Predict the 3D structure of the following.
Amino acid sequence: MSLPTNFLWGGATAANQTEGAFDKASRGRSNMDFVPSGPLRDEIIVNGVADFTDQSGLYYPSRKAIDMYHHYEEDIALFAEMGFSVYRLSISWSRIFPNGDEKEPNEEGLKFYQQVFETCQNYNIEPLVTISHFECPAHLIEHYGSWANKKMIDFYLNYCNTLFTRFKGLVKYWITFNEINMILHAPYMATGIRIADEENKNQAIYQAAHHQLIASAKATKLAKEIDSNNQIGCMLAAGDTYGYTCAPEDVWAAKLADRENYFFTDVQVRGYYPSYFKKRLEREKIELDFSENVLDLLSNHTVDFIGFSYYSSSLISADPAIQETTEGNLFPTLNNPYLKSSEWGWLIDPLGLRITMNSLYDRYQKPLFIVENGLGANDVVEPDGMINDDYRIDYLREHIKMMIAAVDEDGVDLMGYTSWGPIDLVSASSGELSKRYGFIYVDQNNEGTGSNERKKKKSFEWYKQVIKTNGAVL
């Protein structure tokens, strides 16, 4: 089995989970700066906070994260040592526009990312940049209602114009929004919207999603105008849904669940709202702007590739009596008796990756890019300093095998693979650092204490060999 010689290998992180330095270089506050770790987190990532004030006794992990702001040179050097040809990272919107509605950007923020991208290029690592990764300036939430407000499109476009212009020649791979379908499961974390109890929840969610889809199309148009070499991708939190049984009702329930996610990529890749979704809007009396200029925009400015995260498949039943679920990820799913699960309850389904790749490629015939896949686990530093994370190697090996099979045997067009996260970082769902993903260990605990020293795990050398052999040695 083989992959193309130009296949992109690397890892993926996000600014709010790695950078820290939330109060440095004129950065403004963002939604995730006010999301604590602990028992309040689950509710806040869905519903948001009442106001942007610090609550005593709470730890806000995104504010410190792993301090990559001051360690990026060391970290990128380690990525280069593993052989990365691509590094997916996000830009903190509030580091470029502290409030989000300014006309002129914060030069200190631009200089920081320019240094990061130049460091990547010095190692022949292509940056794959997520423009908005679970982050929105707090000012835009407080004064405009975030993506519930149509004005957000212009603020986002001003931000994009700044990035595309300043980093022309340094960055050519872009993703407009991280896991755009996560608005369905964690609206505040994903988009910054706060839905009042008296509001029509679906109207609020799909109105915000519609604004993001318009913004994505406009950003795609703008990126091509500024630099025709730019490659723009969408991103989906993916994973096929299985029916609990072969009963037709379960099969239909699985199809409906998958449509919930595919609606986003149908618009971004095909360029139009699918008929099944329009019928749903009619039934639920959800009103969106489908004026001719909006439809033309969506149709004429589709993405170049489909980025997606894959952690697991899902399982669904049409029978409400079947309720044994696991909610290790933000997607609640029935327990699948044929699958093992991680320490955090995430189901492990390597074949599901191949199935998902085929579903996406069969549907769209556009290049795919696996931009997140990984295992969160407790890692133990042995007395000799070693971190023997064989469980992580096993997880990634089995998934990469299925990835290669999808390319080699099924003919799926795949651009690359970036594992989540190549270095330990703050978990988006739980806020923990003990839920470790990396090939590189960071000496810090869930309360933010530790030396922040970086240390290679056993998986570091394993992944280095995988990249060196282009997946031939697993």
